[in-house]
Specification:
Elements lengths: L1 H14 L2 H14 L3 H18 L3 H5 L1 H16 L12 E5 L4 H4 L7 E6 L7 H9 L3 E2 L5 H4 L6 E4 L4 E4 L3 H23 L14 E6 L5 H6 L5 E5 L13 H14 L5 E4 L29 H6 L1 H14 L5 E5 L5 H20 L10 E5 L2 H5 L1 H4 L6 E3 L1 H9 L17 H17 L3 E3 L2 H4 L4 H6 L4 E4 L4 H10 L2 H12 L13
Parallel strand pairs: 1-2, 2-3, 6-7, 6-13, 7-8, 8-9, 9-10, 10-11, 11-12, 12-13
Antiparallel strand pairs: 4-5
Length: 502
């Protein structure tokens, strides 16, 4: 499959990296160590470096080091572990799982997985969510403490693992499982009901996707289209940059499968924390990659691959309603420059006889606090807003959302965060442009009434979250929600609720 090939290509590229080869070779020649010993020492050195990195995404890349060196060591010592194909009906316990491993896990084959290391925003974790697999990452010594054949319960909701549960605990979890299955069936029976509040206000529920294959799940959940297509997944974990035609095929497949429902494609959100194979596109030594050259900032500096990227999106817009969304935008000049480039490329495509939507909406992700504060200013040029709450909260509160040490400070209910959200929604409404939310806050049903009260009318989330959010919407009146929002903005919510990470 294409996804597996991309991950394997990335591992081959890593094997060819002199940084991984030179020290082991020198250790073999000068210190007379055997090859396995030399590679193990280099592996430990690299993992220590990755563990010290401040950026959560780069820390998560340590799993690639483990996977590559594991495969080399297996070849050197002549041992191969059981394959995923032999794990049907079982729970996988591992030190790490690469995305290449994860895409082999089919929901009807592997029951769940647990890893010693990992991060919620790693590729493997993202793919696991899209497959609907229960998973617990960062379980420390699970692979050493557990043995093949152990009875294990993996509670992905709570992030806990129960080993050798007694009969009472088994009955409790069997009851919970049956209860969840009944609830899932009930929600599925309501999939065709409209997302309308108790007092008759229509709400749009759209889906976040990473891969074209996710389109089928979007349709199954009866979503109102795609609110966030993370286009960077076409570029990541591969030794080359996909050309215009490959990107067009991926985008057009999603647009076609959505059959007239809108598709919002986010332009490349890639950079210091998500490097490409071209070293010039990254700044690995940046002191704070989250504030560095990434997203639209990087795209505008690299027109030689940003132009074909936009051309592919524009060509796909001829097949159905497409919206282009710009990430990590912080200035009006970036928006104007992007709009001019899109207009230029539309004319270029027309000259070549290639169709595209001349009126394709161009919007922005609101994830920089300064943009949220000046939302009325940006609403005069953008066709729509989509609030990226994960980064907005991170930047507004000066809290790294990937750092467990400050996780308690990552507070979606902080009055300042709620004020930024309300201000953005109000500014968009005043200018008559749609305002969506595509961060994890939109997927948490506990926040749904509050967001409705703040004025949000378009939610975008991972497909599996749609039924529960829809249920809450249908039970909530806008009048009640607005009262709740007034209390929240007055500081009445003193306890932060934890959300996940995207």
């Amino acid at each position: 499959p294409q996804d597996t090939r991309l991950f394997i290509d990335a591992h081959l590229l890593m094997l060819d990296d002199p940084a991984l080869r030179e020290r082991p070779l020198r250790s073999i020649r000068e210190d007379h160590r055997n090859a396995a010993w030399a590679i193990q020492l280099e592996r430990e050195r690299l993992l220590e470096i990755f563990d010290r990195m401040e950026d959560a995404y780069l820390r998560a890349k340590r799993e690639d080091i483990i996977q590559v060196t594991d495969r080399v060591l297996r070849q050197l010592v002549g041992w191969e572990p059981p394959t995923l194909q032999s794990a049907e009906g079982q729970i996988i316990i591992a030190e790490e799982l690469s995305p290449a491993d994860t895409v082999l896990m089919k929901k009807d084959k592997v029951l769940a997985w647990v890893t010693d290391f990992g991060a919620a925003n790693s590729h493997a974790a993202i793919l696991a969510r899209s497959l609907g697999l229960p998973a617990v990452v960062g379980a420390h010594s699970a692979s050493r403490l557990l043995r093949s054949g152990d009875m294990v319960i993996v509670d992905g909701d709570q992030g806990i693992i129960l080993v050798a549960p007694d009969a009472l605990v088994l009955r409790q979890y069997q009851g919970l499982q049956e209860q969840r299955q009944r609830r899932r069936r009930l929600l599925e029976e309501q999939r065709d009901l409209p997302a309308i509040t108790a007092d008759g206000v229509e709400i749009h529920l759209r889906a976040n996707i990473e891969l074209p294959d996710d389109s089928s799940l979007v349709r199954r959940m009866n979503a109102d289209g795609v609110g966030l297509y993370r286009s960077e997944f076409l570029f990541m974990n591969r030794p080359d940059i996909p050309d215009e035609e490959e990107q067009y095929q991926a985008f057009s497949r999603v647009v076609t499968e959505m059959a007239g429902a809108p598709v919002t494609i986010r332009s490349l959100d890639i950079g210091a924390d998500k490097g490409l194979s071209d070293d010039e596109t990254t700044t690995h030594n940046a002191l704070n990659p989250a504030l560095g050259l990434r997203g639209l900032r990087l795209c505008l500096r690299r027109p030689e691959w940003f132009r074909p990227h936009l051309r592919a999106i524009l060509r796909a817009s001829a097949l159905g309603p497409v919206r282009l969304m710009l990430p990590m935008l912080s200035s009006m000049s970036q928006l104007l420059q992007s709009r001019a480039l899109v207009s230029e490329l539309q004319a270029e495509l027309r000259g070549e006889g290639l169709p595209c939507d001349p009126d394709m909406p161009l919007g922005i992700m609101v994830e920089v606090p300064a943009v949220a504060m000046a939302a009325h200013y940006f609403a005069g040029c953008a066709d729509f807003f989509s609030i990226g709450t994960n980064d907005l909260i991170q930047y507004a509160l000066a809290v790294d959302r990937g750092d467990d040490d400050v996780n308690d400070l990552f507070d979606p209910l902080h009055v300042g965060v709620l004020a930024l959200i309300q201000h953005t929604i109000a500014a968009g409404r005043a200018k008559g442009i749609p305002v969506a939310m595509c961060g994890e806050m939109a997927a948490n049903p506990a926040f749904t009434p509050l967001l409705l009260g703040l004025g949000l009318r378009e939610f975008s989330m991972y497909p599996g979250a749609i039924p529960e959010v829809k249920e809450i919407i249908r039970q909530t009146s806008i009048a009640e929600a607005e009262q709740l929002a007034m209390g929240a903005l007055a500081g009445e919510f003193s306890v932060a609720l934890e959300t996940g990470h995207s």
